[in-house]
Give the backbone structure.
Amino acid sequence: SILAAAIAKHRSLSLLKLGCNLISEVAAADLGVALSQNLSLKELDLGFNGLGDVGAKAIAGALAASARGQLARLSLESNGIGLEGAKALASALSPGSALEELSLAGNAIDDEAATAFAEALSRNSTLASLDLRINEIGDEGARALAAALASNRNSALRALDLRYNRLGSQAAAAVGAAVAGGRATASL
């Protein structure tokens, strides 16, 4: 697409907000290729589009392919992202990732997807904010996230938002205990 070609070639673009448009899974694939070629973009907002799992995988592929990239903030709110897209995004949070803020609020992220993010957080040292509010995370996913927070002494995570999920009191207590032992704050 024309937009993807422009993003790939632009060398000084640092902020791109494309939220609340009609960007589909197919267009997201083109954007993924463009993002892997753009080294100047620091913030990308693709919230409230129709990316789904296919689009999330394309964006995750770009994140993983451009380890030398500068993308620090990524918003993928309300895009219908489920297990497969979330797993791809979690695996893109490699130890060399530049990503500092990731918002996945309002998607379909469940316990299994939260566990994938927990595994990524256990080895990631750059992500400072993870917004998982308004999803389908229950006790199992919350406990996995809590364990990751407690185990990674090199974690940069300062904010974890789990509001409007399905956490029970024991899972919330586990997250609270993990936060109390580190530098992060959690919104439950």
Observations:
- Residues 52-65 form the longest helix (14 residues).
- The two ends are 40 Å apart (CA to CA).
- The CA atoms of residues 42 and 71 lie 4 Å apart.
